[in-house]
Amino acid sequence: MSKETVYVERCMGVNGLEKVILTEVRGFSAEVYLYGGQVTSWKNEHREELLFLSNKAIFKPPKAIRGGIPICFPQFSNHGSLEQHGFARNRFWTEDLDPPPFATNTTNKAFIDLILKNSEEDSKIWPHRYEFRLRITLGPGGDLMLTSRIRNTNTDGKSFTFTFAYHTYFSVTDISEVRVEGLETLDYLDNLKNRERFTEQGDAITFESEVDKVYLSTPTKIAILDHERKRTFVLRKDGLPDAVVWNPWDKKAKALSDFGDDEYKHMLCIEAACVEKPITLKPGEEWKGRQEISAVPSSYCSGQLDPQKVLQGG
């Protein structure tokens, strides 16, 4: 790397789609496609990829990109009238050149502001006016932060309601060696059992089959332990009370055209979300939801990480 860091670089990606590369001084990087307003890569200082992106991902509108961090808005799942997970993840966002001030650390230099507004096409399926501002920031320590601000700009006096998720695909070495901590004892809705409600019994979540659950009233911090790589992802979130845990496992993986048959072994979706209780905005009102993800080395003791150190630290 040259001595002068280029914090924000605009260039062309796959199939000529516009993308932005964020780079920090120590060598951390993130890649953002304007199509979908989607982070597709997040690398540490050793150039190791921390997010999962399918080898079969299709970078061709209107197909959503499989992997990275798709944005689910204005609906998560397929329980409404819209397409599954809404339309924000397969629309072209534009760079927001005049964003309102963010009450966040302004010393970060590697960031991009994007905006998505209603179009005539979208109004046919979701008849509301809105402004969705998204700031994606790469911190000096390699943390990746996504801040969403959604405003109701309806002029007809109507409120609107939506659900939301950051559909983050983490890259893991071996799904059967992964533990998720911070969700134990919580209630969840099981999408594989008609959204029936259960209570988590384990002292941590581990994986040996397909999982598709929405954990409710979750803490602001969740830890994902990759035992094989001795790495822990820490997810912090604000304004997003739920957490979706998803892995398609072998049968469903084979049924997905843009997903490799064995790729389920190397990914896990832990999604900061607002699903159970939809958000309603009156005209002029704004909602804000934020997630920050970081990767830290795990120190194991008798094969176990001390979760308290991870969950309390930082």
TrEMBL record:
CDD domains: D-hex-6-P-epi_like. Coiled coil: none annotated. Gene3D superfamilies: 2.70.98.10. It comes from the Eukaryota. Belongs to the glucose-6-phosphate 1-epimerase family. Its EC number is 5.1.3.15. Substrate binds at R66, Q84, R89. Keywords: Isomerase. One of its GO terms (biological process) is carbohydrate metabolic process. It catalyses: alpha-D-glucose 6-phosphate = beta-D-glucose 6-phosphate. GO terms for cellular component: cytoplasm. The active site is at H167, E271. The keyword Isomerase applies. SUPFAM superfamilies: Galactose mutarotase-like. GO terms for molecular function: carbohydrate binding; glucose-6-phosphate 1-epimerase activity. This is glucose-6-phosphate 1-epimerase.
